[in-house]
Amino acid sequence: MSFQSKTKDPKSNDEIDKNKAIKEVLVSQELEEFNSNEILRMLTDNLPDMLWIKDKEGKYLFANKAICDNLLMATSTDEPINKNDVFFALREREAHKDKKDWHTFGELCSDSDFIVMQNNKPMRFEEYGNVKGEFLYLEVHKAPFYDKSGNIIGTVGSGRDITQQMLLKKELEELNKNLELRIKEAVKEVKEKDSYIIQQSRLAQMGEMIGMIAHQWRQPLTAISSASATIKLKSTLNTLNQDTIIDLSTKISDYSQMLSVTIDDFRNFFKTNKMKNETTCNKLINETLSIVSVAIENKNIKLVTNADCNTSIVTFENEVKQVLLNLIQNAEDALLEKDIKNPTITISALNKNIFVSDNAGGIADNIMEKIFDPYFSTKREKDGTGLGLYMSKTIIEEHCGGKLTARNSKDGAVFNISL
Predict the structure, then answer these.
(1) In Å, what is the CA distance from 12 to each residue of 4, 6, 7, 258, 413?
(2) What pLDDT score was predicted for residue 50?
(3) Can you give the three-state secondary structure of the chain, one letter per residue?
(4) In degrees rounded to 5, what are phi and psi of residue 56?
(5) What angle do CA 354, 355, 357 make, to 5 degrees?
(6) Domain end point (choices 107, 139, 161)
(7) Is the pTM for the entire model greater than 0.90?
(8) CATH number reported for the structural domain that contains residue 61 in this entry
(9) How confident is the model over 262-305, as pLDDT tens digits?
(10) In a domain, 318, yes or no
(11) Which of 151, 245, 283, 352 has the fewest CB atoms in 10 Å of its CB?
């Protein structure tokens, strides 16, 4: 099998070049037939932007097809010569008297012409109004128009229709405004819900604390009852002397004072702080333990404190104590649920950090990231609501401006309140 190569015909190439040359000559001859004014007219009338030249009185010296058709409603590109914007505006309004908003352009254009000449420099404007009853928004660039001697003899300008862009921008701004309003409403709603949940959490804590009050009161009430019985017995046996009366009365008074202090502690604990106050980590820990320690120790849980931090802190004191109490109760629940031998809760402080740890084995890795989620709980069977840690984090981070984190140590969970 043989192949034959195809070669181009030299005559066909020559013919193409010849035709091309003829076309170039014809185009050249056609352009020569136009003078510079005609070329300028053809150029400007084929552009979509509005172009014009005005004299110092605002009368048109030149106007392209775009401005004649889309703004002035002129019958031809020659009609605007020696007429101003107001002429065309009044003509349109007169022709449509029954339509108040048919044409509102005109005066605004003249005002910007004067500003450009007064400032003697190019300027940008946004001019808008109704044309044929439809809203029109123009991006306008104007500059002084000079003669050969450099004297200002008017203005030259261009206008681009940006109506759709501006309508979209306005629509977007309205959407953003509505979105911002909706976000504010949503944030307000979330805050109200959080406030409600915090209140519910406090009520739940108050229920639990009734049991703590019983623990706190048991010892002094027993002592008061014992002292009262001793007085009665000795009186019956006629062995009650002045020293015994004073001694037992003093004990009753001391134990009654303990009851009063306990009530004050609990009342202050749930008092709502509207203003931050100055405190220390030591004070926060000691005042919390004064409420919870007896109940914890009665369950054979060892409480260890390692707090020697008197650095001043400005915060919502009672809210931090409520969180601290919640963390201690969580540790207590974990220790009792797992039936840990030698159960221990350790509370320590360093700088502006309070640590609550236990020896209950720690938090499972697969739930570590979820423990602060709302309504997440590992205590469903024990009527756990899952609000404790979520609300604790909300209180510390959003109300007190601190940080609440959790991690595992070799013995158990460690919660860190950073203030």
Answers:
(1) 20, 14, 11, 120, 92
(2) 94
(3) CCCCCCCCCHHHHHHHHHHHHHHHHHHHHHHHCCCHHHHHHHHHHCCCCEEEEEECCCCEEEECHHHHHHHHCCCCCCCCECCCHHHHHHHHHHHCCCCCCCCCCCHHHHHHHHHHHHHCCCEEEEEEEEECCEEEEEEEEEEEEECCCCCEEEEEEEEEECHHHHHHHHHHHHHHHHHHHHHHHHHHHHHHHHHHHHHHHHHHHHHHHHHHHHHHHHHHHHHHHHHHHHHHHHHHCCCCCHHHHHHHHHHHHHHHHHHHHHHHHHHHHCCCCCCCEEECHHHHHHHHHHHHHHHHHCCCCEEEEEECCCCCEEECHHHHHHHHHHHHHHHHHHHHHCCCCCCEEEEEEECCEEEEEECCCCCCHHHHHHCCCCCCCCCHHHCCCCHHHHHHHHHHHHHCCCEEEEEECCCCEEEEEEC
(4) -65, -20
(5) 160
(6) 161
(7) no
(8) 3.30.450.20
(9) 677 666 655 666 678 888 888 888 888 877 777 788 789 998 98
(10) yes
(11) 151
Q: Is residue 324 part of a domain?
A: yes
What residues make up the domain containing 109? 47-161
pLDDT < 50 regions, the chain? 1-7, 380-386
Sign of CA dihedral 291, 294, 300, 305: positive
The angle that helices 317-337 and 387-394 make with each other, rounded to 10 degrees, is: 150
Please give the Cα distance from 316 to 401 (Å, whole number).
10
Q: Which residue type does 384 have?
A: G
Domain boundary among 108, 129, 161: 161
> What integer pLDDT is reported at residue 4 of this predicted model?
46
- HSE-up of 242 (CA within 13 Å, CB side)? 0
Decide if 73 is inside a domain: yes
Residue type (1 letter), 196: Y
Domain count, the chain: 2
